[in-house]
Design goal:
four-stranded mixed sheet; alpha/beta; 29% strand
Length: 161
């Protein structure tokens, strides 16, 4: 990849989303081995524009990229930012891509936050802090916790009272 393309990619931010909050591997890989949390958003809000989210493409083969050919913007975007190995298909990932970002954080309006799901191994201290913060927020999202099944390798998402 050319230096110019690398610089371009450094100015791109990616917000990764999944369709399933109960995927045990997602919790293992992306939520600090079940000690983190998952945020659930209201997908119909225009303020977020989830319509600009792109579904990740899972393939066995790496895409071929021709950096000399012009006029391939959308195809290049798909190949570089939206393609992953087929082994990752369990993620059911969607990506919101931001260009020319100032920071790596994506900001959402508070009203967009619909739910907070706590990991099954979250510490009591972190759990108390997150519950207090959500109760103090203007959006008042529902609070859930992931509970591991005793008989299968699965999670149940249970609402906290």
């Amino acid at each position: 990849m050319t230096e110019a393309n690398m610089k371009l990619l450094q100015r791109v931010g990616i917000c990764s989303l999944t369709e399933h909050s109960d995927n045990i591997l997602m919790w293992s890989h992306y939520a600090s081995s079940h000690t983190g949390l998952c945020l659930g958003f209201e997908p119909s809000l225009e303020a977020i524009d989830f319509a600009c989210a792109f579904e990740v493409i899972y393939r066995q083969d790496r895409p071929t990229i021709n950096l000399i050919r012009k006029g391939q913007g959308e195809e290049l975007l798909e190949k570089i930012l939206l393609t992953k190995a087929a082994d990752w298909s369990y993620e059911r990932e969607w990506r919101m891509i931001n260009q020319d970002i100032e920071s790596r954080l994506r900001h959402f309006p508070p009203v967009a936050l619909k739910e907070v799901i706590l990991g099954s191994r979250i510490t009591d201290h972190a759990k108390a802090e997150i519950i207090a913060a959500t109760k103090a927020s203007s959006s008042k999202p529902a609070i859930f916790q992931a509970i591991p099944s005793r008989s299968t390798f699965s999670l149940t998402i249970r609402k906290l009272s």
